[in-house]
Amino acid sequence: MKAVTRRLLTLTLLVCTGSLTLSGLAGAHGDVTPQPVDTGNLKKLGPDWLDVNPYRGNPEAIRIGHSAFAQNCARCHGIDAISGGIAPDLRKLPEGEEGDAILQGRFRFGSIRNGVTYMPPFEGILSQEAAWAIRSWLDTVHQE
């Protein structure tokens, strides 16, 4: 029996026995409740979004950002930002202001193509402080 046929039969069996639901498959990607990020130890930034990461190199922001990434981003972008192909590998974000602008835009507004949400917007869900803390951590794992 070919491998593809075996996989289809296995999926069919799992669906028929109730071990797997098709609705669960359809909602698996991105169906996540954002987790709160405690940024109480970081300088407050106010309501207006900054264009440049104010926490770059800040050890506390890096610590918070690593935890925030693990809780809110790793499901799609991979553990420690090592993407498995579902979403972009954020270790490859450009350094400096160019990467800051890309992260800020995606974080705030998400990514929707042809009516399909590839990344939900996080503005109003997670704070600007959380976004820049995540960016600060991503700077530490940057790769060319």
UniProtKB/TrEMBL annotation:
Residues 60-142 form the Cytochrome c domain. Residues 1-28 form the signal peptide. The keyword Nucleotidyltransferase does not apply. Gene3D superfamilies: Cytochrome c-like domain. It comes from the Bacteria. Keywords: Heme, Iron, Metal-binding, Signal. It holds the Pfam family Cytochrome_CBB3. NCBIfam families: c550_PedF. This is Cytochrome c-550 PedF. It comes from Vogesella oryzagri. The gene is pedF.
